[in-house]
Amino acid sequence: MRKTLSPLAALLLAFASLLLAANYAVAEEEEPQERWFQIEILAFKNPATEVDNPEVWPAFSQIEHPEDYIELRNSNRNLSLSEPLSSTRIDEFINDGSLSSFRALSSEHYQLRGERNRLDSQDGYQVLFHDVWNQPVPNREEVIPIRLEGGEQYGRQYEFQGYINLYVERYLHLAADLHLTEYKISEDPFSVIETPELTLPSLQPPTTEDDFTSLLNDNSPFINIDLEGSDEFYVSVADIELKENRRMRSREIHYFDNPKFGVLVYITPIETLEP
Asked: How far is residue 32 CA from its own chain's centroid?
């Protein structure tokens, strides 16, 4: 004897089918689930402009340096300013899989070549950073910041530097904390920062050698040009921050900007062969 579904059972079955179809549709809209991506970042300085109400930027560097971070290898710049702390977690992360991760690739891999050419051909724009690399993208709990730096070098620091976090939390996300620092040259750095617009009453000139040395740390506004042969200093007079967390779509150009500089990001999923 052929059994038939009761009206309630048929309704539940239909509801379950609709739910599965909806979940499939949502999955289709989400970013691809490839673990590896090719990341390209192009950062540039905007032309100098005069505005009626200019933003007031802090003079001190506001960069938050993480304990662990990753630097690109074979980059277009000398990234030997400071080595990241060694850790087993980082070693496992950058050596994951058969692809070479966090190694800057040649310009043949650029997807933003047209944008770069337009920036180079227009007066007032200055490219600060342009690299492309492959990397695995973990979930948010396992992400390790990637250090970026470029542009003009002032003593031990680059004018453009900061960190990005790339992670998957249902969708692909990029969290950026990037800074453009403006410097002036002076033999008396305190005379520069104690101008009316940059008054720092809590900062006093050093009175001992230890006090002087403590000023020359990573977040100091003072950078000695040559500790042995010069009395001139690069003095940080403005620290411009671009801080944003954004959901990313692959194969699309994403634009991050503020009045002083902009960043273009292009992300391409990489198909990897299963072992």
From this structure: 22
- Residue 221 and residue 237: Cα distance in Å, rounded? 7
DSSP for 201-248 reads TT-----SHHHHHHHTSTT-SEEES-TTT---EEEEEEEEEEEEEEEE
For the segment 164-222, what is each residue's pLDDT rounded down to a tens digit? 999 999 999 999 999 999 988 876 656 555 544 444 433 344 444 454 444 444 555 55
Structure tokens at 100: 């070479």
pLDDT one-digit tens code per residue, 23-71: 544 443 444 444 899 999 999 999 987 766 566 677 777 788 999 999 9
Element (H, E) at 154: strand 146-154
Q: What token pair was written down for 264? A: 């273009």
* Residue entry with tokens 């050419």: 117
Structure-block tokens of residue 246: 């954004």
Instruction: Domain ranges for the chain, please list them.
Output: 32-181+238-270
Beta-bridged to residue 241, according to DSSP, are 179
DSSP label at residue 122: S
Sort residue 74 into left (φ over 0), alpha (ψ -120 to 50) or beta: left
pTM: 0.71
Q: Is 170 left (phi over 0), alpha (psi -120 to 50) or beta?
A: left
Half-sphere exposure of 228 (CA within 13 A, CB side): 0
Q: Could you give the CA distance from residue 51 to residue 271 in angstroms, rounded to a whole number?
A: 47
With vertex at residue 176, the alpha carbon angle to CA 167 and CA 174, rounded to the nearest 5 degrees, is 30
